[in-house]
Structures
1.
Amino acid sequence: MRTSQIPSVAKTDIALGLRQLGLNEGDGLLVHSSLSSLGYVHGGADTVIDALLEVVGKTGTVLVPTLTGTEHDGPEQPPIFDVRHSPCWTGRIPSTFLQRQEARRSLHPTHSIAGIGPMTAALTEGHEDCITPCGPDSPYYRLAELGGYVLLIGIGQDSNTTVHTCEELAEVPYHLQSQPTDAVIIDYEGRRHIRRLTLHDWGTPRQFVRIDDELLRRGLMRVARVGNANLRLIRSMAMIEWLVGVLREEPRYLCK
Ligand SMILES: CC(C)(COP(=O)(O)OP(=O)(O)OC[C@H]1O[C@@H](n2cnc3c(N)ncnc32)[C@H](O)[C@@H]1OP(=O)(O)O)[C@@H](O)C(=O)NCCC(=O)NCCS
């Protein structure tokens, strides 16, 4: 795959880009990503993870989305989530992250998150008890409360799950299923739990890309380039405060 068109990317390049964005030791961030967007990364997904962990240091926490939910989930077809084995569909970087011994994954049956770092437990524990996937007690909102960031590597706002947090807080009319689902959760000890939860409704096409220019214009997002990829770093709580206000005024602002 190494041709003259494809840049070669090393851990130092990624760490430099992250620092250019303003990331520092002790920071917390949720990383959505495309590995191939960067170019050819020496060492693959592990190199990206190492760079992230290096920049936030031992006092910082890196989270990745390890989502498993599908459009078929619902009362008629409850999801069965095994925290140890259910594969995520959010890409090579999250699935590689999950294989690290120190990674801990939340128990939400559709919108789980995995973390490495000292704030992981505080951010992820009890996610399975959140009635909705991305609401005020979910890791997405807790990260924002702690002053954390969303980082998008080589992808756009369509992958920014924290936008669903804004939809939930603004109580938009299309985001959640109307009936609860009894989801099956299998924990790290192999114990089976049932949780009655309200799941994501996949029926409404969104255009999250709409927020991109606004985030930049309002100074809520910074952009840096690494290899072929744009890295977008968004202040999570600032985005939530702005976007919830917009959605309360115009609940279908994000719909196509
Ligand atoms: C779907 C998505 C993951 C696809 O991105 P991608 O770059 O094509 O795929 P991955 O990140 O999984 O990386 C694997 C790919 O990287 C490439 N790759 C493999 N080794 C590589 C290396 N060393 N360096 C660079 N690229 C490499 C390959 O093309 C590989 O695909 P293959 O295994 O099919 O050959 C991405 O577009 C996306 O949407 N990411 C965000 C997901 C998310 O967080 N969603 C939340 C929704 S609310």
2.
Amino acid sequence: MKAPLYERLGGFDRISKIVNDLVDLHIANPLINARFANSDAAALKQKATAFFCAGIGGTETYTGKDMVSAHKGMNISEQEFIAVIDDALAALDKNGVGAEERMEVLAILYSMKSQVTRL
Ligand code: HEM
């Protein structure tokens, strides 16, 4: 049986590095950075890391909002959603994540589209 995605991605240290890179890419991405103008980047990195770890087999606890509550009222577009996914793929590539794990993360992120967009 395959190890959980959490372990194949290298556990907390490597995942938090990937998520930190992801948030930095969002802040540099002109398609979406206005959305994060008032964000506390360190707090967002911590929450997003816990969210992702908890969802893929880690023992971390996520205490933030569910995805619908977190994005309600923002009317996030499909273009913005794809920009976030592109940043995620770039962060995975930057950290040398393998092709199989990359596709698994892409599928997980895409599956949340209806909980994030047009709310
Ligand atoms: C699958 C895609 C996404 C995931 C997994 C995700 C995940 C999260 C998480 C875990 C939080 C923290 C919730 C909390 O504060 O309790 C959050 C907040 C937020 N997300 Fe997303 N998100 C996604 C897509 C997007 C998109 C496409 C945008 C718009 C470009 C966006 C904009 C935001 C903003 C503005 C916040 C609030 C940041 C803050 O409190 O400073 N998200 N998201």
